[in-house]
Target: Anaphase-promoting complex subunit 4 WD40 domain-containing protein
Amino acid sequence: MVYGKKTTTISAANSQQDKEYVFPKGPEDTVSALRWSPVSNHLAAASWDGKVYIYDATNTTSSDTIKGVAAIPVGSPVLDCDFNKDGTIAVGASADKKLHLMDLNSSQTMTLEAHTSPVRTVRFVNVPSANAPIIASGSWDRTVRYWDMRQPQPIGALELPERVYAMDTGGSVLAIGTAENHLHLVNLHDNPLKLWKSIASPIPHQTTAVSVTPDGTRWAIGTIAGRAAAQVVDEKDLSLANLSFKCHREAVPNKRNATDSYAVNDVAWSPGHKDVFATAGSDGTFSIWDVLNRNRLRSFPKVSSPVTAVSFTRDGMGMAYAMGYDWAKGYQHHKAGAETKIVMHRFATALK
Model:
């Protein structure tokens, strides 16, 4: 299915209502992940330049009012990032096989010797049985490991059949996308060390991104083939029929019925509306989708570089997106001086 029957195009340049603000110059290489603090307007950006950048976008009225407040020095490409639930600690997942953390109040940093292969993704997770904040890290070593920051060794590990490519959490659910097109679900409130469900992806192409609704009732994935999918966690929940659809595709000039497919680099559910999620593509576009009515809610003008990451603000009234070369076409297509930047798009009205 291709969405698009009810499409509203919003251009920051032409809109009299929506606004865009460019973040201060920071990352010197492609941004791999964006995450907003759950309690404030602070944004974490993980970059291939070997740092996690922290920005303060509180009371943003212009690009000049967004401030860079900290950077976690990692030294190796950082592939993902997250905040703890009170927004005081940021963590980065690195290609150096480690987790790198910073206490944003004291600026103190620490490192966890996490995995035997690069750490692809990281999340603070809700484990009621633990008496401390718990970090889950997913790696190409085919494990998800759980960490109590007070201990140098993992407090538990989950063995997986394949490499971890993407991971997200919401409510009691941890969703893990792996190689060989599978999605594994963990019930964090029951047994974090056991797979609850393993599902064959509805799309027979490599998973690139996973997102879970804040209440843990739905998940969505993006793939390398310009397709995304969304499903409910509980099969008894009839609020959303399982669906997959085409996105981030372009008609090939002068070739009838021919299209180019671009990787979906990121997906993200809106925190304010569980029928709404965004996709970001290697084609330099991002879109917002209404899964209940099965249409594209909003699309945005194509930008000069691939959109590598997207994240809704905690109130759902805005989103940050990152632009940069994603290496989808190889080194021969990389242009020196290619634009790398982070932008916040603020909606004039709530998405619905």
Summary: The mean pLDDT is 90. The chain has one domain: 84-346.
